[in-house]
Amino acid sequence: MIDIRLIRKDRQAIEAQLKTKDPQIDLSLVCELDHQIREGKTRVEQLKAKRNEASQKIGELKRSGQDPSELMAQISHSAEEIHTLDHQIKEWEEQFTNELAKLPNLPMDDIKISQDPKENVVLKEVKQKPHFDFPFKNHVELNERLHLFDFKRGAKIAGAGWPVYKGMGARLEWALLQYMIETHIKNGFMQWIPPLLVRREIMFGSGQLPKFDNQQFKINDEDYHLYLIPTAEVPLNGMHVDEVIPTEELPVKYVAYTPCFRREAGAAGSQERGLIRMHQFNKVEMFCFTKPEDSMQIFDQMMASAEEILHGLELHYRNVLLVTGDMSFASARTVDIEVWLPGQNRYYEVSSVSNCTDYQARRSNIRFRREDGKLDFVHTLNGSGLATSRLMVALLENNQEADGSVRIPSVLQRYVGGQTKLIPS
Q: What radius of gyration do the chain's Cα atoms show?
């Protein structure tokens, strides 16, 4: 969450900055509730001070044999007012927290202001787009003879958007995951296998709730109230909720493979068939906790680790700095890594690396202790390293040959028994 002190200091500047992400943002209610809470607490303290003063006078009156009944009535009235105010303040605080939690993170000062994703800034391009001297196929057409996925059986089991990998498709998917995990471990990340279901407060801490509640899959019955994770970012951030991370352990660099579950995948267009957009997909996630002054250095390390995987796979890709209106809710800076998919004739994101500054740490109460002993919030960063579904599409479509076979990148061959090609049948 945003530090309310920033809003108190310069509401207009903060509101203008937030509007670069969402033009509909209005801080009026947040500021009004903040004012009511502060005034209410001041009033309660005043009433308690008068009550204490009256209590002392009652004692003096009793000791001198005088009648304290008038003061006792005043204390009784004050007690009722304090009780009423405490209850009102609690309601205000709940509403205030909910309203503050709906505000996105502030974008960094150097982010381009725009609501149009077409204005995202291309930072660099690596390698060249492939050129085919034969009529190339998209991955769904290639699959007709390679038999890597079974979309019909997936739909029979769970409906559209739930894929089934089979045979060499399953092996190649697993090869990608192993290769990516090993690369990140080599680069200093510690591997975890977190739960796929999390409590509501863990979703809140990472910024998924309350704003995106209707986009989540969840279990609600008499025994469980849990959410299926949309990304491993959620449980990785959640592991340190309400903790003070020892300063000497920072930066903390985690990596995890999990399936990811997202409801909004159902809005896919006809051009996004097959593996392009699904309700369930596999992803390797990097997640880091660091001192604020080190967060951009860690950001660069995460970018480098993600790019190393694409270098190994010999794929053409580009890095794109997102404009304010295209960034995620919790992010202050995001760079997407996009691969070229010939079958779709466009770039698609396979990684998104974000610096969330202290936004998630404030929601989750994750801190560290500075040298002077003061507690401060860590910065959190997350990055796909990478999402496999579109990466699989890129491998198939970019490495296809005229006979319908597909070259397997050399870095993956040791995971598939030394096989160098996918052969159509």
A: 27
